[in-house]
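Hi support team,

I submitted a single chain yesterday and got back a structure, but I'm not sure I'm reading the token output correctly. Could someone confirm the output below corresponds to the sequence I sent? I've pasted both exactly as they appear in my results page.

Thanks,
R.
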Amino acid sequence: MLGAGVMGVGITALAIGRGVQVTLVDVDEERLATARKRVRHELRLAHVLGALPRHGPIGDLDLADSVDAAAGAGVVVEAITETAELKVKAQNEIAAVVAPDALRITNTSSIPVDELAGHVPRPEFLVGVHFMNPPYLIGTLEVVRGPRTGDAAMVAVRALLERLGRKAIVVNDGPGFVTSRVLHRMINDAARVVEEGRASVEDVDALMEHCIGHRTGPLKTADLIGIDNLVDSLRVLYERTGDEGCKPSGLLLRKVADGHHGRKTGRGFYEYGAL
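Hi R., thanks for writing in. Yes, this is the structure output for that exact sequence:
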């Protein structure tokens, strides 16, 4: 696992909670120093919520500060910032140390897989998986097959997700795939409605939840995704589609600038207690 941010820690908790051994890699010493504690917290929460078996096997967790630690891995999941250039760099570093037939997964919410595949060796072993936050609660995953993704990679990713207890829905490549292309634009519009003074945050979520059937409401969902991550994803969508509806709203941009990124910072559209 490359990346010890919110998603990397959550995916790691899911994997070790299903008995899979994980080496979690991050070059940020401060982030790596707290990674084990954060994984344990997520694992405890998953057990409390009944999202992972309490009495099943727990996979070993190792920590490393260099991608060289992935050398013997059959699967590497990259879960770093939603920036194409950084992901290309990370995927090239992974490809340089793993076996030629190792499965390489990019956890992305919006960047087309083929955009990355065009800049890395052996693109047939690169596949996108859109893990959503928190990974141990979301049982159905979007698997993105790029035009260059090979059959062997698809067999391997299905086997991995089955072992993790996840259901894979395979979609074709393109900016935002299915979930982000639909959901993130809706969240952006919900933020605009609040910004325009038409309704409060709570009322927007209540209407979408109780009238439309959205499980949590779009703005609570934004807090869960991380508003900074959401803005990054919207920028990717806007740059690649030209859809004005994907241009991040002023309210979202102000939240990011103020450090109100959602649940992970204790405040977003809502306020949260200590996590």
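A quick pointer for reading it: Strands lie at 22-25, 61-64, 75-78, 103-106, 126-130, 140-145, 167-172. Let us know if anything else looks off.

Best,
Support desk
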